[in-house]
Write a structure and sequence with these properties.
two-stranded antiparallel ribbon; mainly alpha; 2 strands; 342 residues; globular; 13 helices
Length: 342
């Protein structure tokens, strides 16, 4: 069980980068960007292909990030310059990326087995530093020696990377450009009246969003050991599930809290899926169904609790009004009694 939870936590912290990209487009910019399903695979395809062809894995990962930025910018240009509906522009780029990804990989699947990746390099460094031995000895001391992870390097490294991206997102959204992006998402017409170039802001925000998504795809490919042309199907739902779960559990009163909630939501989502798949009558083919159910529950539950709170609030106000009316009537009765006694 511990190994399964550890693996899901490790995957969740990588998928959290993709969820931050989805948060930027859906929540901040209010743009239903379906490019995510394609740009995620683009990042994985470019990283895997470059690594197989002998490029430095870190250079390949940066190239994947740049390609994701370009894909997001194309979506933004189609919407702003081409005047295409936001949803449709994302779908068009997503469909185009399917063929582009096949062109990049040359086939439907590229394996990274026996290849040096950025994560394997980091794992080797952690092992040489003795961090793996220290953490595993710690687990043995508390009675978890039967389920030791193969390496702690990937998890610790990705926690650092994910939080660096989270802090970058927090910083960016507090800059002048970031505030303009937030204002564009809230009220595009209002920010246009201040002579802000909303088209450029939309293109930039979508580019940054998809660069995070592609970066996440590149890291997932290096973690899982392959890139597949179909690995991005339903990725937008996973990202939305992470955002919704995080906001429902941790709240989103500030930008820093909201981005932290997204990271937490991505981790919790992966853990829930892992635990659900351990049920006997479920198998890996049911993962999309589980995802849909998680999103539905995450959307419905806050409304149910919110409705209950609203009913309690109305009942309390009604009780206060009745109490006030009784007090006023009692006061009038006292006045009448005093007048009669006089």
């Amino acid at each position: 069980m511990f190994t399964a939870i550890f693996g899901s936590f490790e995957s969740g912290i990588i998928y959290a980068i993709m969820a931050l990209g989805v948060y930027l487009s859906f929540r901040i910019l209010d743009f239903p960007d379906l490019t995510v399903d394609g740009s995620f695979v683009t990042g994985a395809a470019i990283a895997a292909t470059m690594i197989v062809n002998g490029y430095n894995p870190f250079v390949a990962t940066v190239a994947a990030l740049i390609a994701g930025f370009a894909a997001g910018c194309v979506t933004g240009i189609l919407h702003t310059a081409g005047k295409i509906n936001a949803l449709l522009s994302g779908i068009l780029v997503m469909i185009a990326l399917y063929s582009i990804n096949l062109r990049i990989m040359g086939r439907s699947n590229v394996t990274l087995l026996n290849q040096e990746t950025s994560l394997s390099t980091v794992s080797g460094l952690f092992e040489k530093a003795g961090i793996d031995a220290f953490m595993n000895n710690l687990l043995v001391s508390i009675g978890l020696g039967d389920s030791l992870p193969s390496t702690w390097g990937i998890l610790l490294f990705m926690i650092i990377v994910t939080f660096l991206i989270k802090f970058f997102t927090d910083w960016f959204l507090k800059t002048e450009i970031g505030l303009a992006v937030r204002a564009t998402g809230d009220n595009k017409r209002m920010i246009s009246s201040f002579s802000a170039n909303t088209n450029l802001l939309i293109i930039l925000a979508l580019g940054i969003s998809n660069s995070m998504v592609a970066f996440s795809g590149a890291m997932i490919a290096q973690q899982s050991g392959f890139a597949d042309v179909g690995m991005g199907i339903g990725m937008i739902i996973i990202g939305l599930a992470s955002v919704i779960i995080g906001e429902a559990l941790f709240g989103a009163k500030t930008i820093a809290r909201a981005t932290l909630a997204v990271v937490g939501g991505a981790i919790i989502y992966r853990i829930v899926v892992t635990l659900a798949l351990r049920i006997d009558f479920l198998d890996p083919g049911d993962m999309k169904l589980i995802t849909a159910l998680i999103v539905i529950i995450s959307l419905i539950t806050p409304k149910i609790f919110g409705g209950a709170k609203e009913r309690k609030r109305k009942a309390r106000k009604r009780a206060e009004r009745l109490s006030l009316m009784k007090t006023v009537q009692a006061g009038k009765g006292d006045v009448h009694a005093s007048i009669k006694s006089d």
